[in-house]
Amino acid sequence: MWSHAYNLTFALRLYWLDRAGRVVEGSRVFTKAIVRLPSANFATGLTSVEMGTPDHGLALEQHEAYCAALERCGLTLTRLEADPHYPDSTFVEDTAVLTERCAIITRPGAPSRAGEVEVISEVLCLFYSSILNIQQPGTLDGGDVCQAGDHFFIGISARTNQSGAQQLTDLLALFDYTSSFVDIRDMDGILHLKSGLAYLGDKRLMVVDALANREEFRSYDLVRVHIGDEYVANCVLINDYVLVAARHSAIEEKLQLLGYKTIVVDVSEFQKMDGGLSCLSLRM
Ligand code: CIR
User: Angle at CA 197, nearest 5°, toward 219 and 153?
Assistant: First the structure.
């Protein structure tokens, strides 16, 4: 049944020739994204950092600028209303894993976030013929899932357990994707795997120093992010652009030297709630 659905799914992927004339697999072509406004009580959500209370008015402005950046990348947005029942629900990325071939609804690891998946499931029905679910006892946050071509790195974290990671692996395998686990439970300051890792296409990863020596990343070109700059590792490649967090100009310049076009987005109010650029949208 799922392989039938797979055939119905429209997958877009860029390919090009490198300087030696080899075919290089690029990254996905994204056309749409789902975003959700921060609710007025968003400062009552979960956070592990002590950076002060976010300003809701400024968060709304930053969210709008973030949406404009996504549109500049070519995405058509589905904008969801804020939901005060779920103060963390602006971080939509954690509720689903969206691939070119299927959508998988997660089971968020924080109990206060469990109900966020309901609305997202309804919305995803509009876009996907194949929607699967992570089941009990598994927990999985989308922020722990980093797609690198046809391979997925899955973080085992305070939010994503072994069962959730294994279920995701098994579901992705039905659609010819491979996966491997990256245990980040002993790492301070990294809530999710993508807090310290981003795929930049063409077998290149941006990675914090603390993850750089992991065996899993040995066959990739690494753009390293040093101590003090970790927050910028949560950048997002969308079509022709990389979204980069404000106030990290050295990394931005490094990306530009590598040939990337960058868009700087200030999400300081979301950082206060442990959120970064990737968490604020579900891209497809
Ligand atoms: C939480 O702790 O769940 C939210 N305050 C932040 C979630 C950030 N999501 C992400 O990195 N994917």
Answer: 60
Residues with CB under 6 A from ligand 1: 45-47, 88, 91, 93-94, 110, 113, 143, 191-192, 195, 273-276, 279
Average pLDDT of the residues of the chain = 92
Q: Which residues are catalytic?
A: 192, 279
The atom of ligand 1 lying closest to the CA of 141 is 12
Give, rounded to a whole angstrom, the gap between the first and last alpha carbons of the chain. Answer: 22
- pLDDT of 10 reads 42
> Which atom of ligand 1 lies nearest, measured to the CA of 192?
11
Cβ(206)–Cβ(225) below 8 Å = yes
Q: Which residues on neighbouring strands pair with residue 152, listed in sequence order?
A: 147, 179
Predicted structure pTM score? 0.92
Q: How far apart are CA 73 and CA 222, in angstroms?
A: 24
- From CA 165, how far away is CA 188, in angstroms rounded? 20
d(CA 193, CA 141): 10
Q: Among 205, 238, 208, which residue's Cα sits nearest to residue 35?
A: 238
